[in-house]
Design goal:
Rossmann fold; N-(1-d-carboxylethyl)-l-norvaline Dehydrogenase, domain 2; 2 domains; 8-stranded mixed β-sheet; 56% helix; globular
Length: 302
């Protein structure tokens, strides 16, 4: 079978996966994104065309002839995207939800796709997509997961089927996210408080001694940078993690707290114009947060 791939969503992850499929797997890829018809549409369509992807402003056009449709939207739009796709999907196509959402949301996505007659497989993306591109590790679950894993494998994708029940893959992702984003929230809170007394470097040195093997300055730069640029979607993901914990019968105390701290920081960083488009170091992020917090304190005391 010659695979033809359609993407819903052409953000960071979608662009990276699409570029790899076109360049390495030599697969025909179409992409649909609501933003293609927006104010920045021309630039986004040019970016898609530059990596060999056919940009579509109509979802029906993107779905036409597709054997696999990958959904890579923000988590809060996963079900709505599936409902829209169901109107144009045809039997024989596999709809793959790759969004970071809870098992319960994945099941809602599957229910939305079902009337189309297309197959549904959930996917959990288990690492940051760049620099892996289309080779990013994926866990798949659903009745067609094993078959799809083999098909994606021929395209060079690192897909592993972990079960035939929808929710088995996303459970891994959601529980992992509590740990990963938890580290992010801990670094934010600890280092921002430490900066007040100019002891952030001492704190990082101490963490490095306790947990050797990692460059904790690099870790801090990575995670605080993700907060600054992608905080909104990380908050959404933590809300889904909290839902997952609740579905399992536990009070999601930590999941909610992690989302709150990341959201608090992103709210204060989202309008910053970083040189080059992103902060170069955790030092830049802490300085900006400290400035915003101190300004708010001065305003409140005036």
């Amino acid at each position: 079978m010659t695979e033809r791939v359609a993407l819903i969503g052409f953000g960071e992850a979608g662009r990276s996966i699409a570029a790899g499929l076109v360049e390495e797997a030599k697969v025909a890829v179409k992409a649909y994104d609501l933003r293609f018809a927006g104010p920045q549409g021309a630039a986004l369509r040019e970016a898609a065309a530059a990596c060999g992807v056919t940009p579509c402003t109509d979802l029906r056009e993107a779905a036409d002839g597709a054997t696999v449709m990958l959904s890579l939207v923000v988590g809060s739009a996963a079900v709505a995207a599936a409902r829209s796709a169901a109107e144009v999907l045809k039997p024989g196509c596999v709809y793959v939800d790759m969004n970071s959402v809870s098992p319960g949301t994945k099941r809602k996505v599957g229910a939305a796709v079902a009337p189309s007659g297309a197959d549904f497989v959930e996917a959990a993306v288990m690492a940051r997509v760049p620099p892996y591109g289309h080779r990013v590790p994926l866990l798949l679950a659903g009745p067609k997961a094993q078959e799809l894993a083999a098909r994606l494998g021929t395209l060079g994708m690192a897909a592993e089927a972990v079960g035939d029940t929808v929710g088995q893959a996303s459970l891994n992702k959601m529980l992992r996210s509590i740990m990963v984003k938890g580290i992010e929230a801990l670094l934010l809170e600890s280092l921002l408080c430490a900066k007040r007394w100019n002891i952030e470097e001492r704190i990082l040195d101490s963490i490095g001694e306790t947990f050797p093997g990692l460059d904790w300055r690099e870790v801090a730069t990575y995670y605080l940078g993700r907060t600054a640029i992608h905080g909104a979607r990380r908050v959404t993901e933590m809300a889904e993690s909290a839902d997952t914990v609740a579905e399992l019968g536990l009070d999601p105390i930590m999941s909610k707290a992690v989302g709150q701290r990341i959201g608090w920081a992103h709210e204060r960083l989202r309008d910053v114009s970083w040189p080059g488009g992103a902060p170069k170091s955790y030092i830049d992020v802490l300085a900006e947060l400290d400035r915003k917090v101190r300004a708010a304190e001065m305003k409140a005391s005036a």
